[in-house]
Amino acid sequence: MALKLGLSFVSFFLTVAQAQANVLKLTAGSKKIENVAIAQTAVLSLNKQDISLDLIGAGLRSKRVLIANVKVYVAQLFSSDAAQFVRTEKGALDSLRDCRTTVMSLTFLRNVDAPTVQQSFKEALTKNSINLTEPAMAAFLQAVVNGGDAVSGKTLVFAFQKNADGSETATYEDSNGHLTSVPGPAGTSRKLLAMWLGEPSDSGLASLKNDLVKGL
Q1: Contact in structure between 182 and 136 (CB atoms under 8 Å)
Q2: Element (H, E) at 10
Q3: CA angle, corner 35, sides to 31 and 41, nearest 5?
């Protein structure tokens, strides 16, 4: 009974939108990381609105597997209020607190199955003392699994928006272009962005955070 109630609670928090490929339109710049073009600007097309974004930073996510460092994805961080971003290890995450829209784009360099992607996110959230059973966190993690595997050459998009009533919405676009919106209370965006800008759960994320904070 408890399991059924828990799943129902998560389902209540998930809102699945129509398939919509390329919710994030990038203006490719001259720089590349692992042959992935890095954009200086982007436009997020969501809920019948076009939101202009500027690049904060970009970097490579690697993961130690046995004795080798495996290249996983290239991350690009954008914001509608990029000028507010504080380029220090301690100040970066909190400086996004008042940004209206923040987007993390992950272009994968290899295939990664959905449970592994979810587990990596769980580890990062746990490292930052975030309760995975909170409705918004549980719904977000479920959306990652429901969205299927990360595919080499394709991009996962995570958009975090502040709403007029003080609530927040995290929208996830999977490799197939399907959108899932997860509503949450104030602070939801900060908790999820801690996966990349909070306390790193491994050396690969520490290196990525350093690149995002430093900027190009």
Answers
A1: yes
A2: helix 2-13
A3: 40
Q: Which residues 6+ apart lie within 8 Å of 104 measured at CB?
A: 75, 76, 77, 78, 157, 158, 160, 193, 196
What residues contact 76, with CB distance under 8 A and at least 6 apart? 26, 38, 39, 55, 57, 58, 104, 105, 107
**Cα 119–chain centre separation:** 14
**How open is the CA angle 167-169-172, to the nearest 5 degrees?**
170
Torsion angle of the four alpha carbons 47, 175, 136, 105, in this order, in degrees rounded to the nearest 10: -80
CATH number of 208's domain: 3.50.70.10
Write the pLDDT tens digit of every residue in 157-212: 999 999 999 999 999 999 999 999 999 999 999 999 999 999 999 999 999 999 99
Is residue 125 within 8 Å of residue 118, measured between CB atoms?
Answer: no
Q: Please, which residues have CB within 8 angstroms of residue 121's CB and are 6 or more apart in sequence? A: 140, 141, 144, 195
* Model confidence, pTM: 0.90
Residue 94: which domain range? 2-214
Q: How many CB atoms lie within 10 A of CB 5?
A: 9
Our count of domains for the chain comes to 1
